[in-house]
Write a structure and sequence with these properties.
The complex is a heterodimer of chains A (about 250) and B (about 475). In chain A, strands 6-7-8-3-9-10 form a six-stranded mixed beta sheet, with helices on both faces. The radius of gyration of chain A is 18 Å and the shape is globular. Chain A contains seven helices and ten strands. Chain A has a single domain, classed as Rossmann fold. In chain A, about 35% of the residues lie in helices and about 30% in strands. Chain A has about 250 residues and is of the alpha/beta class. Chain B has a six-stranded mixed barrel. In chain B, helix 2 crosses helix 12, helix 5 crosses helix 6 and helix 10 packs parallel to helix 13. Chain B has about 475 residues and is of the alpha+beta class. Chain B folds into two domains: about 200 residues, no CATH class; about 220 residues, no CATH class. In chain B, strand 3 and strand 4 form a beta hairpin. Chain B is about 50% helix and about 15% strand. Classes of the chains: A alpha/beta (about 250), B alpha+beta (about 475). Chains A and B meet through helix 2 and helix 3 of A and helix 1, helix 11, helix 12 and helix 14 of B.
Chain lengths: ~250, ~475
């Protein structure tokens, strides 16, 4: 990302900053304003929850932060780089090295074993085979799946699959962890397990976590800050005091 | 992504949809097999022709004659060369000199005369020609009944089939089936022929019992007698094909060993001319056949002989145009063979486009976790390339097997027609490499569109796909 434009030094401490960012889609004659002029700033190391009802634009906002989508206007600045101005190749490197992503539907590759899924980003990063395996085992160990490395995703429970997805998100030691409804497909018990892991990563590894959820209670228990979106606009941004310890 | 990782992932993906990818690979192999079959037929035929022509002696032989005989084929040379009467005589000294030229394997005089042969007290008139031992490898003698001359001086004769028919009184009427050569050889082999001929004797003799034609001129001292002689010959072989088919009506039907023919000093047509010109007493040859070690050297040897003052003739140009014919044949067979591969390449495009639709979400996941457009493109290229290489290898084996089967079948048919078996099929190593490489290349080209399409997939859209 050497060619990417940099921004002023005053904003360096922010992990993510968006300025009047818009993402509009055109469907026939109708313009859908998925994200409509959102400006926000997430300091490094913060655990932020993006809340809102279905269609509020929270997932679209997360995709813009992940560099999976590009804004129609405005900018998203991560680590001094304006994502809107990066090339497709640079965005791929950004997703590989800076961001880790977790999805509601886990998004593991069904034909691969857990360890193969977890080490896949390392293949794209052209890490040597030996190092790849030890790092993948370490990541799976961290999420409690040491004994399941050679299982395929279909042989695991939802909670285990999401933990494997977390291990994959961790593997390249990203600065930023983006989670899109990570507990949406899980029961409350396993959901709490996953949330505890997210909080551990935030607290122990110093990762900035942005989590999209529509469960307010979950956000209140874990997030340090809650940002509410409605119809693509930021409607509320307030700090939150998370619970110290949550038992599954 | 590194090449080993790409290969590993590509092979894994191919295994996942095994049946579909296997069928696509079979399509490629059929295409490659047809290409290999066509080109190996072309190669085989070319090798067969080259082998046959090399054996025929047409492409490695130069016919040398003296300009005195005016038998040169180049009219230009006849106009501009030295005056025939003053040019060099083609005698033994000239023959030895030619034989010692570089790249010449042998030079032998063309001894040929028409005379009477008696078999079972019946006279037969025919042309006789002398052959060196090396003529044994000529393909006209490949299926010789009996044997070739036991030595260069043996009083033996090899007959051409039509003369054997004449001796046995079995000449078939026009259009009737010919008797087989083995049938003709059986009653003749080992039998005796008596050849009557006119011998040129250097010392003028008037010995009793010889009917001599004395010719001479006291001023030159060159004179000789012509004496009637007889020579007994044992029939050792009967040849099916005609080794002198190129010579048309002057072709010989009985062959003698070269040294034997030389020792007989048979009166040659040139002798009379030499006498009338008052030449030396050394016999002159009407022509000499010169064989070069390799047909490619024919031109340089021809030039060297021309410098010596002789007229030469070879059919080297015919060989060049034959190569052109084979190039056209190759291109034609290659295009035909490639058609099936072109159809197979559409199969590759279809398979990979299907794979994109099926693996849309997987492509989205890979992009979300950091795969670049180039990684995705390379992965699809690797899959196309792997199918190409597998298809190529299987296709070469299949093509080779088809060739063997057709070769086998054709030879059974030839055997039934009493034609000796031949190798029509040849799969040289360059063809193996070319076929696999070509299949790989065609697969990569076929993968261009699907790989580009997969690389351009929008990850957000792809992740939404269920």
């Amino acid at each position: 990302m050497t060619t990417a434009p940099t921004v002023s030094a005053s904003t360096i401490t922010a992990a993510i900053r968006s300025e009047n960012v818009c993402r509009h889609y055109r469907m026939g004659d109708t313009v859908i304003r998925a994200v409509d002029g959102v400006s926000l700033e997430v300091p490094a190391g913060e655990f932020v929850a993006l809340l809102g009802s279905s269609g509020s634009g929270k997932s679209s906002m997360l995709n813009l932060m992940a560099g999976l989508d590009t804004p129609t206007s405005g900018c998203v600045i991560v680590q001094s780089h304006d994502l809107a101005k990066l090339s497709r190749e640079e965005l791929a490197k950004y997703r590989l090295h800076v961001v880790g992503m977790v999805f509601q539907s886990f998004n593991l590759i069904a034909s691969m074993t857990l360890i193969e899924n977890v080490e896949l980003p390392l293949r794209f990063a052209e890490v040597d085979r030996g190092q790849r395996e030890s790092r993948a085992r370490e990541a799976l160990d961290r999420v409690g799946l040491k004994a399941r490395v050679h299982h395929r995703p279909s042989e695991l429970s939802g909670g285990e699959q999401q933990r494997a997805a977390l291990a994959r998100a961790l593997i390249n030691r990203p600065k930023l962890l983006l989670a899109d409804e990570p507990t949406g497909n899980l029961d409350s018990h396993t959901g709490t397990e996953i949330m505890n892991l997210l909080r551990d990563f935030n607290q122990q590894l110093g990762m900035t976590v942005v989590m999209v959820t529509h469960e307010r209670a979950l956000a209140e228990r874990y997030a340090q800050r809650m940002i509410f979106l409605a119809d693509g606009k930021l409607v509320e941004d307030r700090p939150n005091r998370p619970a110290l310890e949550v038992q599954p | 992504m590194k090449l080993p990782d790409l290969t590993e992932l590509a092979l894994r993906n191919l295994r996942e949809s095994f049946l579909r990818n296997f069928l696509t690979t079979v399509g490629i192999s059929v295409g490659v097999a047809s290409l290999v079959a066509m080109l190996s037929l072309g190669t085989g035929l070319q090798q067969l022709f080259t082998r046959r022509l090399a054996k025929s002696g047409l492409f490695d032989t130069i016919y040398v004659s003296s300009r005195r005989e005016m038998r040169g084929m180049g009219r230009e040379e006849e106009r501009n060369g030295p005056i025939p009467g003053e040019s060099r005589i083609l005698d033994e000294a000239a023959r030895v000199e030619i034989e010692h030229l570089r790249n010449v394997s042998e030079a032998y005089p063309d001894i040929r005369f028409a005379t009477e042969l008696r078999f079972a007290d019946t006279p037969h008139l025919t042309t006789i020609s002398a052959l060196p031992q090396s003529a044994q490898s000529n393909d006209a003698f490949e299926h010789l009944q009996g044997s070739f001359f036991s030595s260069e001086t043996a009083p033996e004769a090899v007959l051409q089939k039509s003369f054997a028919e004449e001796l046995l009184g079995k000449t078939p009427p026009l259009g009737a089936p010919e008797p087989s050569v083995s049938e003709l050889a059986q009653p003749l082999l080992g039998k005796e022929l008596v050849m009557r001929y006119a011998q040129r004797e250097v010392a003028p003799g008037e010995a009793a019992g010889t009917r001599g034609i004395a010719s001479g001129d006291d001023s030159t001292g060159a004179s000789y007698s012509v004496v009637s002689r007889e020579q007994k010959l044992k029939i050792v072989g009967v040849s099916d094909l005609d080794p002198e088919s190129m010579r048309g009506p002057t072709r010989a039907r009985v062959f003698l060993p070269l040294k034997l023919a030389e020792s007989l000093h048979v009166m040659q047509p040139t002798d009379l001319r030499e006498v009338s010109r008052g030449a030396s007493d050394q016999p002159a040859y009407s022509s000499i056949s010169v064989r070069v070690k390799n047909p490619s050297q024919i031109q340089s040897v021809e030039d060297a002989i021309k410098k010596m003052g002789f007229t030469t003739f070879s059919i080297v140009d015919a060989s060049r145009s034959l190569q052109q014919v084979f190039k056209v044949l190759y291109a034609f067979l290659g295009i035909f063979g490639s058609l099936a591969l072109a159809v197979a390449s559409i199969g590759i495009v279809n398979t990979l486009v299907m794979a994109i639709l099926e693996r849309r979400r997987e492509i989205g996941i890979m992009k979300a976790i950091g795969a670049s457009d180039a990684d995705v493109r390379k992965l699809f290229f690797a899959e196309a390339g792997a199918m190409g290489i597998f298809g190529g290898v299987i296709g070469v084996i299949l093509g080779w097997a088809i060739g063997q089967v057709i070769n086998f079948g054709t030879n059974i048919y030839l055997k039934r027609q009493s034609i000796p078996p031949e190798h029509f099929w040849a799969v040289p190593w360059w063809l193996v490499g070319f076929a696999i490489g070509f299949a790989f290349l065609v697969s990569l080209v076929s993968g261009l569109y699907p790989a580009g399409r997969a690389a351009r997939l929008d990850p957000v859209q792809a992740l939404r796909y269920e």
